[in-house]
Amino acid sequence: MNENNPLDFSMIMASAVHDMKNSLGMLLNTLEEVFGELPKEMQNQPKLATLQYEAERVNNDLIQLLGIYRLENQQLRLRVDEQYVSDFIEEQAARYETLFESRGIKITLECEADCIGYFDHDLVAGILNNTLANAARYTKDEMKLTAGFEDGWLVISLSDNGRGYPQAMIDAPGEIVKGINFQTGSTSLGLFFSAKVAALHSQGDKRGRIELSNGGELGGGIFKIYLP
User: Fold this and answer.
1) Which of 20, 61, 109, 183 is the most buried (most CB within 10 A)?
2) For the chain, how many structural domains are there in total?
3) Is the pLDDT of residue 51 over 50?
4) How many CB atoms lie within 10 A of CB 57?
5) Contact (CB, 8 A) for 52 and 98
6) What is the model's pTM?
7) In this structure, are residues 175 and 212 in contact, taking their beta carbons and an 8 Å threshold?
8) How far is C-alpha 223 from the geometric centre of its chain's CA atoms?
9) 125 in a domain, yes or no?
10) Contact in structure between 139 and 160 (CB atoms under 8 Å)
11) Which CATH number do you get for residue 62?
């Protein structure tokens, strides 16, 4: 290595992650085509749903890693546009329809048809996809996805009837927890990414944020993203 041109390991990692994400995207598209060609009675097989789910999880992780790299290098830009929120949350939940059916998970969606928000579709979709994937992993059999306005904020909330969030995550939802939980595989990377993306959305002195809690209607974990 040339001392005058030191190796930028983070750039190399970002390039490798980008290549892996592209390959995984092709794999997911191929899986979707294969599933579509299967007889209806085979499409909801638990093993097939798990295969698609785990591939989606890895893809979400790679997208978050790239996003964080771009954030740290001031390369991530918002593309805020008008969004029909009801259509938006239906679109994200539909990505996991096969998984929910195979695991016997009931998901309820609640949002007014005329609810309109202004946010970056792809970035907020990344947050919600990661949250849905995690909730599907830890819930017992029920989830609820809602969206609406509270005190001038657009609030998108996902709750489940699982064990709930650890207190450390509730106390600091946007921070990387030291170490890795080898029982769950959690690094809290998704929450870190979610907090950063939420904070990119601002209006006047309002800045987006995420909140975690336990309890509520279903008694498990509750994830909320507040957008101005």
Assistant:
1) 61
2) 1
3) yes
4) 18
5) yes
6) 0.79
7) no
8) 11
9) yes
10) yes
11) 3.30.565.10
